[in-house]
Write a structure and sequence with these properties.
It is built from two helices and 15 strands. The chain is mainly beta and 284 residues long. The strands form two sheets. A nine-stranded antiparallel beta sheet has the order 7-8-9-10-11-12-13-14-15, with no helix packed on it. The chain is elongated and about 75 Å long.
Amino acid sequence: MSFLLFFLIGCKKSNTSEIININVKDSVKTQNSTKVNDNSKEQSDSFVISCGSGCAMTYNLKNVKDLGNIKEVRFEVETYIDEVLSETNDETYLFYYNQSNQIEKIQHKGEKENILENLLPNAVNSFKNFAGKLVNDTKINTVQDTKSINNNEKLPYNKTINLKTIKYNVLDSGYFKGITKFICDSNNPRYLPLPQKDDIEVILVPQDCGDFPYRFYLLTIKNNNVIGNLYVEGEWHEPDDEENTEVSSFSIDKNYNIKVETKFLDSFKSDIYKISDNGKIIKQ
């Protein structure tokens, strides 16, 4: 059974968008190191697990996508039978970390099984050791700069989303408690990161599964729970009354005051919101 489990883990293919490139130096191939999150530490991470008598699998790190407390990691997995390379596949895993940056679970992307609960002890140790090196090298979920959250967004923020050019991040819809009701497609849970406020993560999620393709909600997340939500950008109108379309937009100043403006056909409204220490969104 253990051979079958390892073999299944090694042979499933998965594709993922590339956000951070980390090149790997191992005994088979040598590539140049790159920078991750402005750190110039060289990456030299690969590990081997046994998949049965005469079988070994080498996991070579290829790319990492940063999703807050989750790392989406793509490996090139080489399967060797009697020391002869028999197969090479790409595999993607989700590494879940707690607030202390310790690994809690690892899932093959698209599956719910925690592989740490099913692998043999040596394989579990290999994955955990890799997870520790990964978080040390990429500094997951640090709050050294409270004006940026694992992305390039800075305060003040004042942008309008272009639906034709937008590029979403994707997360595990089951990771943040309470987020599923804001996700249109559970198989493709999209979001846009906004600057972090202290220990509160702030994201935008599209609400384009109804009658209006241009609608975005701002969510606040603390301790992996969705705390607040606010409609901040998009268009809305009554059925068969496009002439009276309401257009909303928002901005965030350097003190994290959220300004939501709504334009009507012949009027205008502006509201200011703040995020409390517990993550609630409060109208001023």
